[in-house]
Amino acid sequence: MSLTDFTGKIIDESVVDSEIFKYIPDKRILRVLFENKIFKLRDIQKEAIQKGLFFQKSFLVCAPSGSGKTFIGEVCAIHNIFQQFGKSIYLVPFKALATEKYFHFKKSYTRYDLKVELSIGDYDIDDSKLEMAIHLRKIKNSLGKKGTQKIILQGSLKDSIIYEQSQSKLIGYLILGIVLLSILFGVVVLVEMFLLPAIMEPLNHLVLISFGIAFVFIVVYRNYSKSGKVA
Question: Which Pfam families match (predicted)?
Answer without folding.
Answer: DEAD
